[in-house]
């Protein structure tokens, strides 16, 4: 075997090994953090929503990790989320107005996004499967 063939063969094997390493280290689409948008009180309206990145209101989600951006547009409302097994999150409080982003791991179950000050009229249910 020639030295040249040995060197090129060794380099080829190293490149293939490096490519396999890079491919395995790259997160899959399933592992990527999905984005959600929560909005409450736009123009002081008594409305709360949780939507996907395309602004479609959520009815069902797949269990996983989500980046949730909350837009609290009113000092008279807040944004909270209740989940299965007594899990609860308070993202904003009255009189906060502004935007917050949090990362949540959602497990299978029923969830409720709501304004605690006006819970009887301002809520949205969704399911995680």
Topology:
Blueprint: H1 3-25, E1 34-40, E2 48-52, E3 60-61, E4 64-72, E5 80-82, E6 88-90, E7 98-106, E8 109-114, E9 123-128
Parallel strand pairs: 1-4, 3-9
Antiparallel strand pairs: 1-2, 4-7, 5-6, 5-8, 8-9
Q: Keyphrases for this structure?
A:
single chain, 129 residues, five-stranded mixed β-sheet, elongated
Describe the fold and architecture.
With 129 residues, this protein is α+β, with helices and mostly antiparallel strands. It is 18% helix and 39% strand. The protein contains one helix and nine strands, in the order H-E-E-E-E-E-E-E-E-E. Strands 3-9-8-5-6 form a five-stranded mixed sheet, with no helix packed on it. Strands 2-1-4-7 form a four-stranded mixed sheet, with no helix packed on it. The longest helix is centred in the N-terminal third of the chain and has 23 residues.
- Which geometry do the CA atoms define? elongated
Helix percent band: 10-25%
Describe the largest sheet.
Answer: 5 strands, mixed
- Measured distance between first and last alpha carbons: 59 Å
Strand order of the largest sheet: 3-9-8-5-6
**What is the mean pLDDT?**
87
Flag low-confidence runs. Answer: none
Q: How many alpha or pi helices? A: 1
Helix/strand class: alpha+beta
- Into which percentage range does the β-strand content fall? 35-45%
Q: What radius of gyration results from the CA coordinates?
A: 23 Å
Give the strand tally: 9
* Helix and strand sequence: HEEEEEEEEE
Give a short overview:
Helices cover 18% and strands 39% of the residues.
């Amino acid at each position: 075997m020639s030295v040249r063939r040995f060197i090129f063969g060794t380099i080829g094997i190293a490149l293939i090994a490096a490519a396999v390493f890079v491919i395995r280290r790259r997160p899959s689409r399933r592992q990527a953090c999905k984005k959600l948008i929560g909005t409450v009180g736009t123009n002081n309206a008594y409305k709360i929503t949780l939507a996907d990145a395309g602004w479609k209101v959520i009815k069902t989600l797949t269990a996983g990790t989500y980046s949730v951006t909350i837009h609290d547009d009113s000092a008279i409302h807040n944004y909270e989320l209740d989940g299965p097994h007594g899990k609860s999150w308070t993202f904003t409080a009255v009189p906060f107005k502004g935007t917050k982003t949090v990362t949540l791991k959602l497990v299978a179950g029923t969830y409720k996004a709501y304004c605690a000050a006006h819970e009887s009229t301002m809520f949205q249910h969704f399911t995680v499967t």
